[in-house]
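hiii, so i know i said id send this last week but things got crazy w the move. better late than never?? heres the sequnce for the chain we talked about at the cafe, plus the structure i predicted for it. fair warning i was half asleep when i ran it
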Amino acid sequence: MYPHQRERLEEALERAGVDALVATSPENIAYISGSGGTSARAPRFGVFARSGTALVVLADEVAGLVADAVDVDHVVAHGDFRAAFAAPLSSETRRIQSMLTASAASPGDALAAALVHLGVGQARIGIDEGALGRDAWHVLIECLVDAKIVPAGGYLAEARRVKAPYEIECLDHALRITEEALDAVIQVIERGMTEREAASLFAGEVVKRGAWPRPARIAMGERTWIAKPPPTDRALRKGDLVRFDAAASYKGYCASVARTAVLGEPAPSAESAFGALLAGVSAAADVIAPGASAQRVREATVEAVRAAGLPTYEPAGVGCGVGLASRERPEIAAGEATALAAGEVLRVDLAYYEIGSMGLRVGDTFLVSAAGTRALNRSRHHLIVLD
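okay and structure toks below
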Protein backbone atom coordinates (compact mmCIF):
# COMPACT_ATOMS: atom_id res chain seq x y z
CA MET A 1 0.00 0.00 0.00
CA TYR A 2 1.31 3.44 -0.92
CA PRO A 3 1.80 5.99 1.91
CA HIS A 4 -0.84 8.27 0.38
CA GLN A 5 -3.49 5.56 0.55
CA ARG A 6 -2.57 4.63 4.11
CA GLU A 7 -2.84 8.29 5.11
CA ARG A 8 -6.25 8.65 3.41
CA LEU A 9 -7.53 5.46 5.06
CA GLU A 10 -6.26 6.50 8.49
CA GLU A 11 -8.13 9.79 8.03
CA ALA A 12 -11.22 7.76 7.14
CA LEU A 13 -10.86 5.79 10.38
CA GLU A 14 -10.80 9.07 12.29
CA ARG A 15 -13.81 10.54 10.50
CA ALA A 16 -15.84 7.36 10.93
CA GLY A 17 -14.77 6.91 14.54
CA VAL A 18 -13.87 3.24 13.98
CA ASP A 19 -10.89 0.98 14.55
CA ALA A 20 -11.14 -0.88 11.24
CA LEU A 21 -12.76 -0.46 7.84
CA VAL A 22 -14.17 -3.41 5.92
CA ALA A 23 -14.52 -2.97 2.15
CA THR A 24 -17.06 -5.01 0.20
CA SER A 25 -17.15 -3.38 -3.26
CA PRO A 26 -14.44 -4.36 -5.81
CA GLU A 27 -13.18 -0.76 -5.95
CA ASN A 28 -12.84 -0.35 -2.19
CA ILE A 29 -11.25 -3.79 -1.82
CA ALA A 30 -8.73 -2.87 -4.52
CA TYR A 31 -7.94 0.41 -2.74
CA ILE A 32 -7.14 -1.45 0.49
CA SER A 33 -5.47 -4.57 -0.87
CA GLY A 34 -4.43 -3.92 -4.46
CA SER A 35 -6.57 -6.90 -5.47
CA GLY A 36 -9.89 -6.08 -7.08
CA GLY A 37 -12.43 -8.44 -8.53
CA THR A 38 -15.55 -9.93 -7.11
CA SER A 39 -17.29 -13.28 -6.86
CA ALA A 40 -20.84 -14.16 -7.73
CA ARG A 41 -20.67 -17.07 -5.28
CA ALA A 42 -19.70 -15.31 -2.05
CA PRO A 43 -18.70 -11.86 -0.76
CA ARG A 44 -15.08 -10.73 -0.68
CA PHE A 45 -13.74 -8.39 2.00
CA GLY A 46 -10.75 -6.09 2.31
CA VAL A 47 -9.90 -4.95 5.85
CA PHE A 48 -7.84 -1.94 6.92
CA ALA A 49 -6.73 -1.19 10.48
CA ARG A 50 -3.79 0.76 11.84
CA SER A 51 -2.15 -2.57 12.61
CA GLY A 52 -2.33 -3.83 9.02
CA THR A 53 -4.49 -5.13 6.19
CA ALA A 54 -6.33 -8.35 5.43
CA LEU A 55 -8.16 -9.93 2.52
CA VAL A 56 -11.03 -12.41 2.89
CA VAL A 57 -11.63 -14.63 -0.15
CA LEU A 58 -12.97 -17.96 -1.30
CA ALA A 59 -10.53 -20.83 -0.78
CA ASP A 60 -10.08 -21.41 -4.51
CA GLU A 61 -8.69 -17.86 -4.87
CA VAL A 62 -5.82 -18.36 -2.44
CA ALA A 63 -3.27 -19.85 -4.84
CA GLY A 64 -3.74 -16.97 -7.29
CA LEU A 65 -3.27 -14.34 -4.58
CA VAL A 66 -0.06 -15.97 -3.35
CA ALA A 67 1.28 -16.37 -6.89
CA ASP A 68 0.53 -12.69 -7.60
CA ALA A 69 2.16 -11.62 -4.31
CA VAL A 70 -0.82 -9.52 -3.28
CA ASP A 71 0.45 -7.01 -0.72
CA VAL A 72 -1.66 -7.63 2.40
CA ASP A 73 -0.65 -8.77 5.86
CA HIS A 74 -3.24 -11.55 6.16
CA VAL A 75 -5.25 -13.63 3.69
CA VAL A 76 -8.13 -15.55 5.27
CA ALA A 77 -10.00 -18.11 3.19
CA HIS A 78 -13.46 -19.57 3.53
CA GLY A 79 -15.13 -22.54 1.87
CA ASP A 80 -13.83 -25.93 0.83
CA PHE A 81 -11.18 -26.35 -1.87
CA ARG A 82 -9.39 -29.68 -2.27
CA ALA A 83 -5.94 -29.78 -3.86
CA ALA A 84 -2.90 -32.05 -3.80
CA PHE A 85 0.54 -30.61 -2.98
CA ALA A 86 3.70 -31.72 -4.76
CA ALA A 87 6.64 -32.65 -2.56
CA PRO A 88 8.87 -31.13 -1.46
CA LEU A 89 6.79 -28.09 -0.46
CA SER A 90 8.20 -24.71 -1.43
CA SER A 91 7.69 -21.67 0.80
CA GLU A 92 4.93 -20.59 -1.57
CA THR A 93 3.04 -23.88 -1.62
CA ARG A 94 3.51 -24.26 2.14
CA ARG A 95 1.84 -20.87 2.62
CA ILE A 96 -1.05 -21.90 0.38
CA GLN A 97 -1.46 -25.15 2.28
CA SER A 98 -1.51 -23.31 5.61
CA MET A 99 -4.20 -20.89 4.43
CA LEU A 100 -6.39 -23.67 3.04
CA THR A 101 -6.03 -25.73 6.21
CA ALA A 102 -7.24 -22.75 8.25
CA SER A 103 -10.15 -22.02 5.88
CA ALA A 104 -13.27 -20.83 7.70
CA ALA A 105 -16.74 -22.24 7.19
CA SER A 106 -18.34 -19.00 6.02
CA PRO A 107 -17.44 -15.48 4.83
CA GLY A 108 -18.59 -14.03 8.15
CA ASP A 109 -16.43 -16.43 10.15
CA ALA A 110 -13.45 -15.62 7.91
CA LEU A 111 -13.99 -11.89 8.41
CA ALA A 112 -14.16 -12.39 12.19
CA ALA A 113 -10.86 -14.27 12.02
CA ALA A 114 -9.25 -11.51 9.92
CA LEU A 115 -10.30 -8.89 12.49
CA VAL A 116 -8.80 -10.99 15.28
CA HIS A 117 -5.53 -11.27 13.31
CA LEU A 118 -5.47 -7.45 13.15
CA GLY A 119 -6.22 -7.11 16.86
CA VAL A 120 -9.61 -5.45 16.37
CA GLY A 121 -11.97 -8.36 16.92
CA GLN A 122 -13.79 -6.58 19.75
CA ALA A 123 -13.56 -3.06 18.40
CA ARG A 124 -15.78 -0.63 16.50
CA ILE A 125 -15.89 -1.75 12.85
CA GLY A 126 -17.03 0.29 9.85
CA ILE A 127 -18.41 -1.87 7.05
CA ASP A 128 -18.88 -0.74 3.45
CA GLU A 129 -22.58 -1.47 3.11
CA GLY A 130 -22.79 -0.67 -0.60
CA ALA A 131 -22.16 -4.18 -1.93
CA LEU A 132 -24.09 -6.02 0.76
CA GLY A 133 -27.74 -6.94 0.66
CA ARG A 134 -29.88 -6.80 3.78
CA ASP A 135 -29.51 -10.51 4.49
CA ALA A 136 -25.72 -10.43 4.12
CA TRP A 137 -25.51 -7.43 6.46
CA HIS A 138 -27.43 -9.27 9.18
CA VAL A 139 -25.37 -12.43 8.71
CA LEU A 140 -22.18 -10.43 9.26
CA ILE A 141 -23.57 -8.81 12.41
CA GLU A 142 -24.38 -12.26 13.76
CA CYS A 143 -20.82 -13.46 13.06
CA LEU A 144 -19.17 -10.36 14.55
CA VAL A 145 -20.92 -10.58 17.91
CA ASP A 146 -17.98 -9.04 19.81
CA ALA A 147 -17.72 -5.95 17.59
CA LYS A 148 -19.77 -2.77 17.20
CA ILE A 149 -20.79 -2.49 13.53
CA VAL A 150 -21.55 0.80 11.74
CA PRO A 151 -22.05 1.65 8.03
CA ALA A 152 -18.91 3.19 6.51
CA GLY A 153 -19.12 2.97 2.71
CA GLY A 154 -19.16 6.75 2.38
CA TYR A 155 -15.90 7.13 4.27
CA LEU A 156 -14.12 4.75 1.90
CA ALA A 157 -15.55 6.54 -1.13
CA GLU A 158 -14.32 9.84 0.28
CA ALA A 159 -10.85 8.42 0.91
CA ARG A 160 -10.52 7.49 -2.77
CA ARG A 161 -11.29 11.00 -4.03
CA VAL A 162 -7.78 12.47 -3.93
CA LYS A 163 -5.35 10.40 -5.99
CA ALA A 164 -1.76 9.48 -5.27
CA PRO A 165 0.87 10.06 -8.00
CA TYR A 166 0.78 6.34 -8.86
CA GLU A 167 -3.00 6.47 -9.29
CA ILE A 168 -2.75 9.53 -11.52
CA GLU A 169 -0.16 7.70 -13.65
CA CYS A 170 -2.51 4.72 -14.02
CA LEU A 171 -5.45 6.95 -14.92
CA ASP A 172 -3.33 8.85 -17.43
CA HIS A 173 -2.12 5.59 -19.00
CA ALA A 174 -5.67 4.19 -19.15
CA LEU A 175 -6.82 7.37 -20.89
CA ARG A 176 -3.93 7.27 -23.38
CA ILE A 177 -4.75 3.68 -24.32
CA THR A 178 -8.45 4.48 -24.67
CA GLU A 179 -7.71 7.41 -26.96
CA GLU A 180 -5.21 5.46 -29.06
CA ALA A 181 -7.65 2.57 -29.46
CA LEU A 182 -10.48 4.90 -30.38
CA ASP A 183 -8.26 6.72 -32.86
CA ALA A 184 -7.45 3.37 -34.50
CA VAL A 185 -11.20 2.86 -35.03
CA ILE A 186 -11.70 6.37 -36.36
CA GLN A 187 -8.86 5.89 -38.85
CA VAL A 188 -10.55 2.90 -40.51
CA ILE A 189 -14.27 3.41 -39.96
CA GLU A 190 -16.03 3.74 -43.28
CA ARG A 191 -19.35 3.46 -44.99
CA GLY A 192 -20.82 0.00 -44.40
CA MET A 193 -19.01 -0.72 -41.11
CA THR A 194 -21.48 -1.66 -38.38
CA GLU A 195 -21.70 -0.49 -34.79
CA ARG A 196 -20.86 -4.00 -33.64
CA GLU A 197 -17.77 -4.20 -35.87
CA ALA A 198 -16.53 -0.83 -34.65
CA ALA A 199 -17.06 -1.77 -31.00
CA SER A 200 -15.25 -5.10 -31.48
CA LEU A 201 -12.36 -3.35 -33.19
CA PHE A 202 -12.06 -0.91 -30.28
CA ALA A 203 -11.97 -3.77 -27.76
CA GLY A 204 -9.20 -5.52 -29.69
CA GLU A 205 -7.13 -2.36 -29.93
CA VAL A 206 -7.39 -1.85 -26.16
CA VAL A 207 -6.25 -5.42 -25.44
CA LYS A 208 -3.30 -5.04 -27.83
CA ARG A 209 -2.15 -2.07 -25.76
CA GLY A 210 -2.25 -3.91 -22.45
CA ALA A 211 -5.49 -2.63 -20.93
CA TRP A 212 -8.96 -4.07 -20.33
CA PRO A 213 -11.81 -2.87 -22.58
CA ARG A 214 -15.13 -1.84 -21.15
CA PRO A 215 -18.27 -2.14 -23.29
CA ALA A 216 -18.10 0.57 -25.95
CA ARG A 217 -21.20 2.37 -27.16
CA ILE A 218 -20.76 3.33 -30.79
CA ALA A 219 -24.01 4.67 -32.18
CA MET A 220 -24.73 5.67 -35.78
CA GLY A 221 -27.38 7.81 -37.40
CA GLU A 222 -30.79 7.57 -35.76
CA ARG A 223 -29.30 5.56 -32.89
CA THR A 224 -27.16 8.48 -31.68
CA TRP A 225 -30.08 9.98 -29.77
CA ILE A 226 -30.47 6.78 -27.73
CA ALA A 227 -28.65 7.50 -24.47
CA LYS A 228 -27.22 4.00 -23.87
CA PRO A 229 -27.41 2.06 -27.13
CA PRO A 230 -26.02 -1.48 -27.31
CA PRO A 231 -24.01 -2.07 -30.51
CA THR A 232 -26.04 -3.51 -33.38
CA ASP A 233 -25.57 -4.42 -37.03
CA ARG A 234 -26.70 -0.96 -38.08
CA ALA A 235 -24.18 0.10 -40.77
CA LEU A 236 -22.68 3.54 -41.32
CA ARG A 237 -24.24 5.61 -44.12
CA LYS A 238 -23.33 8.85 -45.83
CA GLY A 239 -24.32 11.84 -43.71
CA ASP A 240 -24.56 9.84 -40.45
CA LEU A 241 -23.44 11.17 -37.12
CA VAL A 242 -21.39 8.68 -35.11
CA ARG A 243 -21.29 8.92 -31.32
CA PHE A 244 -18.34 7.23 -29.59
CA ASP A 245 -18.53 6.43 -25.87
CA ALA A 246 -15.37 4.38 -25.31
CA ALA A 247 -13.82 3.18 -22.06
CA ALA A 248 -11.03 0.99 -20.73
CA SER A 249 -9.24 0.22 -17.49
CA TYR A 250 -5.56 -0.20 -16.69
CA LYS A 251 -4.47 -1.84 -13.41
CA GLY A 252 -8.04 -1.30 -12.24
CA TYR A 253 -8.15 2.43 -13.03
CA CYS A 254 -10.85 3.62 -15.41
CA ALA A 255 -10.84 6.01 -18.33
CA SER A 256 -13.47 7.01 -20.86
CA VAL A 257 -13.57 9.20 -23.92
CA ALA A 258 -16.64 10.68 -25.58
CA ARG A 259 -16.32 11.94 -29.15
CA THR A 260 -18.66 12.67 -32.07
CA ALA A 261 -18.00 12.27 -35.79
CA VAL A 262 -19.90 12.64 -39.04
CA LEU A 263 -19.49 10.84 -42.37
CA GLY A 264 -19.43 13.73 -44.79
CA GLU A 265 -20.40 17.34 -44.15
CA PRO A 266 -22.15 17.99 -40.83
CA ALA A 267 -25.60 19.57 -40.83
CA PRO A 268 -25.50 23.20 -39.60
CA SER A 269 -27.73 22.30 -36.64
CA ALA A 270 -25.38 19.53 -35.51
CA GLU A 271 -22.31 21.71 -35.97
CA SER A 272 -23.90 24.52 -33.96
CA ALA A 273 -25.08 22.26 -31.13
CA PHE A 274 -21.70 20.56 -30.90
CA GLY A 275 -19.99 23.93 -30.74
CA ALA A 276 -22.18 24.78 -27.75
CA LEU A 277 -21.09 21.60 -25.96
CA LEU A 278 -17.44 22.48 -26.61
CA ALA A 279 -18.04 25.91 -25.08
CA GLY A 280 -19.32 24.10 -21.98
CA VAL A 281 -16.22 21.92 -21.72
CA SER A 282 -14.02 25.01 -22.06
CA ALA A 283 -15.98 26.82 -19.33
CA ALA A 284 -15.64 23.84 -17.01
CA ALA A 285 -11.87 23.79 -17.55
CA ASP A 286 -11.70 27.48 -16.59
CA VAL A 287 -13.59 26.94 -13.31
CA ILE A 288 -12.18 23.61 -12.09
CA ALA A 289 -9.68 24.41 -9.33
CA PRO A 290 -9.02 23.48 -5.70
CA GLY A 291 -11.74 25.04 -3.55
CA ALA A 292 -14.27 25.49 -6.34
CA SER A 293 -17.54 23.68 -5.66
CA ALA A 294 -18.75 20.92 -7.94
CA GLN A 295 -22.04 22.81 -8.20
CA ARG A 296 -20.23 25.93 -9.47
CA VAL A 297 -18.50 23.87 -12.17
CA ARG A 298 -21.89 22.57 -13.28
CA GLU A 299 -23.39 26.07 -13.30
CA ALA A 300 -20.54 27.56 -15.37
CA THR A 301 -20.73 24.67 -17.82
CA VAL A 302 -24.48 24.90 -18.34
CA GLU A 303 -24.40 28.70 -18.61
CA ALA A 304 -21.75 28.49 -21.35
CA VAL A 305 -23.68 25.85 -23.33
CA ARG A 306 -26.86 27.93 -23.18
CA ALA A 307 -25.09 31.12 -24.21
CA ALA A 308 -23.43 29.33 -27.13
CA GLY A 309 -26.65 28.18 -28.75
CA LEU A 310 -28.60 25.66 -26.65
CA PRO A 311 -30.73 27.95 -24.44
CA THR A 312 -32.81 25.14 -22.89
CA TYR A 313 -29.87 22.91 -21.99
CA GLU A 314 -30.54 21.41 -18.55
CA PRO A 315 -28.57 18.22 -17.75
CA ALA A 316 -28.78 16.59 -14.34
CA GLY A 317 -25.01 16.54 -14.13
CA VAL A 318 -22.02 17.26 -16.32
CA GLY A 319 -19.50 14.78 -14.99
CA CYS A 320 -17.97 13.18 -11.91
CA GLY A 321 -14.79 11.94 -10.33
CA VAL A 322 -13.04 8.94 -11.85
CA GLY A 323 -10.62 6.39 -10.44
CA LEU A 324 -10.98 2.72 -9.56
CA ALA A 325 -14.64 3.17 -10.49
CA SER A 326 -15.88 4.93 -13.60
CA ARG A 327 -18.10 7.11 -11.39
CA GLU A 328 -16.67 8.41 -8.15
CA ARG A 329 -17.27 11.36 -5.89
CA PRO A 330 -17.92 14.16 -6.47
CA GLU A 331 -20.82 14.35 -8.90
CA ILE A 332 -20.60 17.59 -10.87
CA ALA A 333 -24.26 18.29 -10.35
CA ALA A 334 -26.73 20.86 -9.03
CA GLY A 335 -26.76 21.02 -5.24
CA GLU A 336 -23.33 19.38 -4.89
CA ALA A 337 -21.51 21.83 -2.62
CA THR A 338 -18.41 19.64 -2.29
CA ALA A 339 -15.23 21.69 -2.70
CA LEU A 340 -12.77 20.25 -5.21
CA ALA A 341 -9.33 19.26 -3.93
CA ALA A 342 -5.92 19.12 -5.58
CA GLY A 343 -5.22 15.59 -6.77
CA GLU A 344 -8.76 14.78 -7.84
CA VAL A 345 -9.34 13.52 -11.37
CA LEU A 346 -12.63 14.61 -12.93
CA ARG A 347 -14.40 13.70 -16.14
CA VAL A 348 -16.50 16.44 -17.74
CA ASP A 349 -19.00 14.67 -20.01
CA LEU A 350 -21.57 16.64 -21.98
CA ALA A 351 -24.33 15.14 -24.10
CA TYR A 352 -27.16 16.61 -26.14
CA TYR A 353 -30.02 14.42 -27.34
CA GLU A 354 -32.59 15.70 -29.81
CA ILE A 355 -34.91 12.76 -30.37
CA GLY A 356 -35.60 12.27 -34.05
CA SER A 357 -32.66 14.42 -35.14
CA MET A 358 -29.29 13.86 -33.44
CA GLY A 359 -27.28 12.77 -30.44
CA LEU A 360 -23.97 14.43 -29.61
CA ARG A 361 -21.42 13.82 -26.88
CA VAL A 362 -18.01 15.12 -25.87
CA GLY A 363 -15.99 14.42 -22.73
CA ASP A 364 -12.56 15.27 -21.38
CA THR A 365 -10.68 14.31 -18.20
CA PHE A 366 -9.04 16.88 -15.92
CA LEU A 367 -6.49 16.72 -13.13
CA VAL A 368 -7.29 19.25 -10.40
CA SER A 369 -4.07 20.97 -9.40
CA ALA A 370 -3.06 24.00 -7.35
CA ALA A 371 -0.50 24.72 -10.08
CA GLY A 372 -3.28 24.87 -12.68
CA THR A 373 -5.89 22.36 -13.71
CA ARG A 374 -5.01 20.55 -16.92
CA ALA A 375 -6.70 18.20 -19.34
CA LEU A 376 -5.17 14.73 -19.45
CA ASN A 377 -6.54 14.03 -22.93
CA ARG A 378 -4.19 13.98 -25.88
CA SER A 379 -6.84 13.75 -28.62
CA ARG A 380 -8.70 16.76 -29.95
CA HIS A 381 -12.35 17.00 -29.06
CA HIS A 382 -13.56 18.76 -32.20
CA LEU A 383 -16.39 17.39 -34.36
CA ILE A 384 -14.58 14.74 -36.42
CA VAL A 385 -15.30 14.69 -40.14
CA LEU A 386 -14.82 11.20 -41.57
CA ASP A 387 -13.69 10.87 -45.18
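btw The two ends are 48 Å apart (CA to CA). thought thatd interest u
miss u guys!!
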